[in-house]
Design brief:
By secondary structure, this protein is an all-alpha fold. The chain is built from 3 helices and no strands. It has one domain: Helix Hairpins, CATH 1.10.287. The two termini are about 40 Å apart.
């Protein structure tokens, strides 16, 4: 007991040095494992985001097809209105009213098509932004993987 109380600082210092060596090797290994786990999480996130991008692309293609169909319908309505205008004869008042209502309907269709086109362009821009983000994440992931490989090589070289 007397010896322990006389030289506690020397024994504590020796213990600290031993713990530091063990702790440093555990810390670097833990850090490496933590980095690997983080990289795996990032890879999973990239895969999920790629799936999301694919789904958005499919939705955009469906919207584009619907927009093309509506545009074709609008053009057909315009041709019908023009052909009826060309056949105009007889009671011009009722024909003008019919033409005015058709013209108004056509303008509504045009406005709807323009609105949908704007929404489609906005969705396409959002898709491009997501693609840029995914590419950036992939680049960061690759860089971190290279750094992790380099760090692993350093640790192996230091342990040998």
């Amino acid at each position: 007991m007397n010896a322990a109380t006389q030289h506690p600082a020397a024994e504590i210092e020796a213990l600290k040095k031993t713990e530091d060596i063990v702790f440093d090797s555990k810390t670097s290994s833990a850090k490496q494992q933590e980095m690997e786990a983080h990289l795996l999480e990032l890879q999973a996130e990239v895969i999920v985001r790629e799936d999301q991008v694919t789904q958005v692309e499919k939705k955009l293609e469906a919207r584009e097809r619907a927009l093309n169909e509506r545009q074709a319908l609008l053009e057909a309505h315009i041709r019908v209105a023009e052909s009826e205008k060309g056949r105009a004869g007889g009671d011009s008042n009722s024909k003008n009213e019919a033409s005015a209502s058709k013209s108004e309907a056509i303008h509504h269709l045009e406005a709807e098509l323009k609105r949908q086109e704007a929404a489609l362009l906005q969705a396409q821009e959002a898709l491009r932004e997501r693609e840029r983000y995914i590419e950036q994440c992939e680049n960061e992931l690759a860089e971190r993987a290279l750094n992790l490989d380099a760090r692993e090589a350093e640790l192996r070289a230091a342990s040998q």
